[in-house]
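Let us work through a complete example step by step.
Step 1: write down the sequence.
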Amino acid sequence: MAENGSRALAILFLVTFIDMIGFGIVIPFLTYLVEDLAQAKGISAVGLWVGIIMTAYPFAQFIAAPIWGGLSDRIGRRPILLIGLIGNSVMFTVFGLAPTLLVALVARFFAGFFNGNIPVAKAYIGDVSSPDKLAGRMGLIGAAFGLGFTVGPFLGGELSSPALRWEFFQGTIFETFPYLLPCLFASILSVISLVIAIFWLEESLPEDRRKVGEKSSFSQNFSKVFKESFDLFKVSPFGRLMFTVMFFFFGFTIMHAVFILYTQMPVVEGGLNFSEADNGRIFALIGIFGIIAQGVLIGPLNRRFGTKKLLVYSSVITGIGLVLVPLGDQSNPWPYIILVCALIAGGNGIFQPSANTIATEYAREKDLELGMVMGSVGAAGAFARVLGPITGGVIWTITERSGLNYWYTIVFAVCGLLMLLACITSMRLPATKAKSPTQSKVN
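Step 2: predict the structure and record it as tokens.
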């Protein structure tokens, strides 16, 4: 049984890893793809379309996460994971072959919609994990999250425009569609994980623990799952937890929109004058720090401090890092910016598995369907990820035009304020009474 459990965890790690590769692989070339498609149609609003396409993915996740999570409570985790892998395999390739901005937008939206794998994978872990191992295993999925986000942008940059780099690709479809190769590579990885899951991933939710109700139409099921998910805001302590998650990721994803805008600014204007390569190294370091936090530190820290305290501490640590970003020594920025990124990535790496762990423990105490709970918490985070980049861009633009001294520090102060709100709401969360799952395959 332990062997099967270890195999399941390895497969879930792979699924999450590939999901995040698919998310991050478009980052290096998305702007260029949008520019190419916009120029072909005489469209000048390139920045707007970049923002729209970037937002489409988390917006679709916000819609889909509670749906897939609730559905997994009814039909099991395994079928939902397989559906997500199939959707990812198709949509990655469609995005690389997109002939218009509308097709690219639709492909990115449905890639996010089918990506219900991460909350369902977390529910799977909750099904099969004893309380003493839950936090560490949530951290394992978090490490896959960070590793995929680190590898994805690297692959996206290295595999873009292959016809300009290697003669082998000249005169082929990869010359006509210069961003197809990284997308196709992501599709192949997804197909490989799909085959592995089909043959080796067992179902974690027995039939007697599934939520079975009367037969109803898809629209009725859709509405019912959404109602159940958002009703969690009224159930103590889920409302506080979901607001904690929203505040945290709101602040964290504002940083995603403005970090490079700050670092690429000339030193005379207050920035660091970083090149694209410099920023690439920074994001790689952020990924590595996140992997260490989620894959190595979370287990010992949870045993030392407990889940609730880690939720509070991680909000504080991340907030401090975000506020400090624009306050370093511009003449020798690397030691300072590495330290700041370690705080940000480490805090985020601790927060995510801690939030997932406490959500699982609350679900067990309230005897609620774990898939629905994890899907709802995932939707709260996705909603924040939709708001964050847009809010960051708006604040950056307004303050840039304000004429204020050190205007570029204001947006990072807003990030810190949101982290403070996350800290306050997490402090008001009640302690949990860890209970074993009804049936555990992993021990």
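Step 3: interpret the result. Residues 333-366 form the longest helix (34 residues).
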